[in-house]
Design brief:
- This protein has 550 residues and is an alpha/beta fold.
- It folds into 3 domains: 306 residues, ANL, N-terminal domain (Rossmann fold, 3-Layer(aba) Sandwich), CATH 3.40.50; 111 residues, Luciferase, Domain 3 (Luciferase, domain 3, Roll); 104 residues, 2-Layer Sandwich (GMP Synthetase, Chain A, domain 3), CATH 3.30.300.30.
- It is 30% helix and 26% strand.
- The protein is built from 16 helices and 26 strands.
- Strands 1, 2, 10, 11, 12, 13, 14, 15, 16, 17, 18, 19, 20 and 21 form a 14-stranded mixed β-sheet that branches.
- It is globular, with a radius of gyration of 23 Å.
- The protein starts with 13 loop residues before the first helix and ends with a helix.
């Protein structure tokens, strides 16, 4: 049993580190996917075949490859295979629309994409305007045993999409069969870019966060090893409900197979009964979820049918977790929910609460050893008095130092202080005398909905693309279930009639992922603006806050 927080192997690049972990117990399940185990040896071999197949189709080291898949064993194979090919993975949510896919393909100059058959139509729709020359397609069941595929087909349990026979398209299962060679030999450089994760913010489009091999591996190791006091990390079984395209899912779930030799349970979508049955069946020890998921489980009417007693470490990140929700979970299961705070730009955790700590109510834990923070006045960037709220700035070595292809946003979000580079989180926190952090507010117009960071500006730009809209303002409305709901205030052109809120929501749904679409539309004659014409979202938020108080 591990007696300290050292990784089980030396951390170098993702392919080298995973190969060392896989060699320790090659026949051990690395992942359970829809009830089927996939061993370390299988993942290692299949990802190597994919890497060789990508190289044979012209994907070169340094090229960007989009991974457009839900949580699945196919996602693991694709992501590891891209790394073994020396390329850069660009994992994106499977609910992205063609508009999002086209933007990210153009922003990264992607050369290839791995997608599900359900999303193949979206990819074909935007392919002519991108540089993508290879499309690898997978059905969510095509790596499962034959009897499961037959069952899924017979009872219509596996959603499918129509896939063409174009020369640039190849099925994942066929590519794995065709590729028998080893992946290309690469020079090992832990500082090389491993992936680009896209995150929301205050701009019209998502921003790419480039993450190196060493940064991802070290951050994942540090965050997963936090639970080492509760069980042997090599025996850790993680219920991977957090999406793998998100930094939360990567550093708290994916990392267990990259660094520690544990196991991850994968499901392509959240189904509460299937999730809880899998926890019970596979004796999961770790559960990762945003606050909304914890609430959904507690309020599920069949909760008593499942045994979740194997869970030893329940972690919540991605949004602020209400105290009442933490108390309900503790009372129901006799286990605390460990809280953490982080961002894509900090590669996950900035602070966490390790087991054994008597963390004060409402805190987000203590700052991790790899991070250095400053709490400053958001305007002058001068340190605030101890215990006072201020914007939290984060430094680490190494660290993300810039956004991909976004010099202006980089200049706004990254600053030099005392010879060190800090990331401006735009979150207001305070720190007590014991070093615990507490969330206070957000300094920018970012909405936290179901754990996602949603850009108010992005939604406003989409609304203003509608021919009937002359102005819009988008804010977050506090909601205990999802963090914040998205509400849009819209001014229509004077000569326009007959446009409803349903029309605008449908317009947004065609152009944005579902989690970005406003839940409410309110029409107004005008919106508050400053003397220089700048939209005053803060005033609109204040009006909504007063409504809630009434």
């Amino acid at each position: 049993m591990l007696t300290n927080l050292d990784p089980v192997v030396e951390l170098t690049t993702i392919p080298e580190t995973f190969a060392r972990v896989a060699a320790l117990e090659p026949q051990k399940p690395a992942a359970w996917y829809l009830g089927t185990p996939f061993t370390y040896a299988q993942l290692d071999e299949m990802s190597s075949r994919l890497a060789a197949g990508l190289a044979a189709r012209g994907v070169e080291p340094g090229n960007r490859v989009i991974v457009y898949l839900p949580n699945s064993v196919q996602w693991l194979i694709a992501w590891l295979g891209v790394a073994k090919a020396g390329a850069v993975a660009v994992p994106i949510t499977p609910i992205y629309t063609p508009f999002d896919v086209a933007y990210i393909a153009g922003d990264t100059d992607a050369q290839a994409i791995v997608c599900s058959d359900r999303n193949y139509g979206y990819v074909m729709q935007v392919l002519p305007e991108t540089g993508i020359h290879t499309v690898v397609v997978s059905s969510m069941a095509d790596l499962l045993p034959g009897y499961k595929r037959l069952f899924g087909w017979a009872f219509d349990k596996v959603p499918t999409g129509k896939v063409g026979k174009e020369a640039h398209t190849v099925w994942l299962k066929d590519l794995l069969k065709q590729s028998s060679g080893a992946p290309p030999a690469l020079n090992a450089d832990p500082a090389a870019m491993a992936e680009i994760i896209y995150t929301g913010g205050t701009t019209k489009h998502p921003k790419g966060v480039p993450i190196s091999h060493e940064l991802l591996l070290n951050c994942a190791h540090e965050q997963i090893a936090t639970s080492a006091a509760l069980f042997e990390v090599q025996g850790n079984v993680v219920m991977g409900s957090a999406p793998l395209f998100h930094i939360l899912g990567q550093t708290t779930a994916l990392g267990t197979i990259l660094v520690h030799g544990g196991c991850i349970i994968l499901q392509p979508k959240v189904n509460l009964d299937a999730l809880m049955e899998a926890v019970s069946r596979h004796q999961a020890t770790t559960f990762i979820g945003v606050p909304a998921l914890y609430r959904m489980i507690l309020e599920h009417d069949r909760l008593d049918l499942y045994d979740l007693s194997s869970l030893k470490y329940c972690f919540s990140g991605g949004d602020v977790m209400p105290l009442e929700l933490q108390e309900r979970w503790q009372k129901r299961f006799g286990q605390p929910v460990y809280i953490g705070y982080g961002a894509s730009e900090t590669v996950g955790g900035v602070s966490m609460t390790p087991p054994g700590d008597e963390a004060p109510s409402g805190s987000m834990g203590r700052v991790l050893g790899s991070k250095e923070v400053l709490i400053v006045d958001p305007i002058g960037l001068e340190p605030v008095a101890p215990g006072e709220p201020g914007e939290i700035l984060v430094h680490s070595a190494p660290m993300v130092e810039a956004y991909w292809n976004k010099p202006e946003e980089t200049g706004e979000a990254f600053v030099e202080i005392g010879g060190k580079r800090f990331y401006r989180t735009a979150d207001v926190v305070r720190q007590d005398q014991q070093g615990y952090l507490y969330f206070v507010d957000r300094t920018v117009d970012t909405i936290k909905h179901k754990g996602y960071r949603v850009s108010a500006s992005e939604i406003e730009c989409v609304l203003q693309d509608h021919q009937a809209v002359v102005a819009s303002c988008v804010v977050g409305v506090p909601d205990e279930k999802v963090g914040e709901r998205i509400k849009a205030f819209v001014v229509l052109k004077k000569d326009i009639k007959g446009i409803t809120g349903y029309d605008l929501i449908a317009f947004c749904r065609e152009r944005m992922a579902n989690y970005k679409v406003p839940q409410y539309i309110e029409f107004r004659d005008m919106l508050p603006k400053s003397k220089v014409g700048k939209l005053l979202r803060r005033e609109v938020r204040g009006e909504e806050a007063k409504r809630l108080e009434e």
